[in-house]
Amino acid sequence: xxxxLCTLAAVCLLLTGCAAQQxxxxxxxxxxxxxxxxxxxxxxxxxxxxxxTAPTTAAxxxxxxxxxxxxxxxxxxxxxxxxxxxxxxxxTGFVSLSDVIPDVLLDIRYYSTYxxxxxxxxxxxxxxxxLSKEAAAALRDVADDLREQGYRLKIYDAYRPQSAVDHxxxxxxxxxTSMKPYFYPELDKSVLFDSGYIAYYSGHSxxxxxxxxxxxxxxxxxxxxxxxxxxxxxxxxxxxxxxxARQYENRMTLRNAMLRHGFSPCATEWWHFSLxxxxxxxxxxxxxxxxxxxxxx
Length: 297
Description:
Elements: H1 28-33, E1 94-96, H2 97-100, E2 105-106, E3 130-132, H3 133-147, E4 151-157, H4 162-173, H5 180-183, E5 209-216, E6 221-222, H6 245-260, E7 263-265, E8 272-275
Parallel strand pairs: 2-4
Antiparallel strand pairs: 1-3, 4-5, 5-6, 5-8, 7-8
């Protein structure tokens, strides 16, 4: 018998913000019209501190390469093999992003200890990025677009198994606040659910959501977005105006490219995008983040 499908119980869950983002109903034309945000009024309460260095207890990070020449790879073909939407363990419809976008950079934060939990998150068995084939193909188009503008993509997170989301919920219920100075200095840990930063189900578990940033090839460094990944606060809102013109332009460069190629943005996280026409809108997958989860070719 196939494992029970993890389904959304909306009547009893907190589903606000982007932690449990629902499939977008916007048409491509609607998405395109929303590509450039007009800056809004600067929030009256700005983040007090933005950490620039990782804590010594969170030193394990995924190594990335700054090489500008991508390694050779065979062309990616979007074949017809799909995951069974009724089987949360079936990774048939998923691929490794590194096979689809050879020059992609990976900084898989939940495999490392530099994340808001302060430890490796359950379900991340390898520092790899998996996505549905459809989302990976669309992200390849984004990468091609941005490469012509002098950027590569750096991935913080992609497919996230339900076990990882459960880990977040368990962490939220304990008294550990060791990473508060780095990820939620303005907030009490107890409000993270109510504020929508954490939920019992995540769009990432449906396999077509990705967290990413830009890497500037000319400088050999990440583009300055005016805030770090997974910072819980208004600083992370894409339309936050208390950043420099260059930082805002970088956020819009990423956002516009993602929207041009079929992704929907998140109102509270500049790094978070979901494929608008996602292939598994009702399935929350459970297989671990590992190349071993993928089917043999």
